[in-house]
Amino acid sequence: MTKTMTAVEISEPGGPEVLRAATRPVPEPGAGQILIRVAYAGVNRPDALQRAGNYAPPPDASDLPGLEASGVVADVGPGVTEWAVGDEVCALLPGGGYAEYAVTSARHALPVPRPLGLKEAACLPETYFTVWTNVFMRGGLRGGERFLVHGGSSGIGTTAIQLAKQAGARVFATAGSAEKCRVCTELGAERAINYRDEDFVEVVRAEGGADLILDMVGGDYIPRNVKALADDGRLVMIAFLSGAKAELNFAQVMVRRLTLTGSTLRPQSEQAKAEIAEGLREWVWPMLEAGQVAPVMDSIFPLDKAAEAHARLESSEHIGKIVLEVAP
């Protein structure tokens, strides 16, 4: 096996242009880890935050961006028995996906669900781990409940719409154009709300309020989300694209018995991520294999065009997932 690889590193904090090709040593898998020869790597908002200097990787993680990838197992570390060299996998990574090789815990990898290929599989880990843990494990979504997801045409949104629909929920989504709203309804949303033209609070409250809201906007959406919730409703926050601060009357939380919670995926323990992977394998992977849900792909960029992929991501013009082609 080669000892060096091509990777894309962050030369300094800044815009997409700071992403540069570099030569790095091929990482070695430690105990309980696998080495993946990366075919495709997903591009996600946390990558852009890290690039801008606002989301430092954990101390034991690669400094390279990239939190999900698909590919072939190239080596296994001591104690790994569930994977063998040559297996095709997709995996959640602690970092390092923008490279020809990446290491991760063997317990954070999942088989490529057929009939999907490696290209589509690269869209799965970060998004499906996030939606599963926040909508179902933390948010407790149940059939018949009213579910609102903001950013319905994003990778997270398109995934949340499909999984919530499969769970029997009534699904509502916000998006910023007629085309994006059309995609949301085609994926299973009962009502797609163009936030440029309509007030999602009025629309959802007219239906009885949301039992669960998945929010990645933050800022002034936080008090509006609280107003949009039904009594005993839950708000789960996973990002703050419009800021992490808001003024909120917490009397509403008490009187209406609301739950406000949230999480980020990357800092969670290896065990916590392994439990999420187990839930996905049991409940969601059969849906992928049956074609009941599927990743929505926006575009593919070669690894050396990672800066263009980030520019596309931050333009918010994309619908679904953006991936990098590394070594298909």
Automatic annotation (TrEMBL):
GO terms for molecular function: NADPH binding; oxidoreductase activity, acting on NAD(P)H. The keyword NADP applies. It comes from the Bacteria. Residues 14-324 form the Enoyl reductase (ER) domain. InterPro entries: ADH-like_C, ADH-like_N, ER, GroES-like_sf, NAD(P)-bd_dom_sf, Quinone_OxRdtase_PIG3. The keyword rRNA-binding does not apply. Keywords: NADP, Oxidoreductase. It holds the Pfam family ADH_N. NCBIfam families: quinone_pig3. PANTHER family: OS02G0805600 PROTEIN (PTHR48106:SF8), QUINONE OXIDOREDUCTASE PIG3-RELATED (PTHR48106). This is NAD(P)H-quinone oxidoreductase. It comes from Psychromarinibacter sediminicola. The lineage of its organism: Bacteria, Pseudomonadati, Pseudomonadota, Alphaproteobacteria, Rhodobacterales.
